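Batch manifest, entry 17 of 40.
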Amino acid sequence: MRILLKIGGAQLADGPSRAALAQAVRAARDAGHELAIVHGGGDQIRALGDRLGLQHSYHRGLRVTDAETAEVVLMVLGGAVNRRLVASLVAGGVPSIGLSGADGGLFGARKYAPDGVDLGFVGEIASTEPRILSALTSQGFVPVIATVAPLDASEQGDDSHFYNINADQAAAPLARAFRADALLFLTDVPGVLRDGALVPVLDPALGAELEAHGVIAGGMLPKVAAAFAAARENPDAVVKIAPAGAPNAVLAALADDVGTRFRTSVAKEIQPHG
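Output type: structure tokens
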């Protein structure tokens, strides 16, 4: 099975967290799966921005990325976060290679302006070139992808900086490029919860109901939206929000009773369980 992991936040915070992720990835590889990883790094961008005296501004959860911030994003995502994650994976016995959109032309960006709001150098994936992923995985490497990319050759716009692409939003097109059988958004929560109990399967109707009642809110909103987008774009893949942190987190997330699975067709009424 080909598995794309989207990680961020707690999984990138420190050495022990990265080491635990490496153990989980190694266990999945030892079980015969091919993996690629896409990562964010918002906390790390914020920390360096604070040190440099940059102002932080957001629109609907997306970082407004001016020219100075674009340089910080490239340094953090394409540099420090990616390099440290690759080093932790290699130390844990997982041969890994760090990539950005520029490497092998893996993906190019187009400017993204939700609601017509100019966010600066914020992008979405305009095109993908999956050959580098196939080449690396065929040789036993795990690609580790930072979601920064130059302006795609087909796009018109300011190409003076790399574009900052939200890692959750990037997961769907990257899963398609990787021909993933499973896309796992690994997080620090068990999945989507209702009254403290896990919702094992989420379809659009139930998702809308839970959002209307404030059950899906805050930081879970964009992640749920990204998971639904991934399920639409990869209809044959297993798409889940599942817990990270355990040494077997990747293999565990493939089990039916772990995490929340996303479906694009209307399913039967879900009875959440603990």
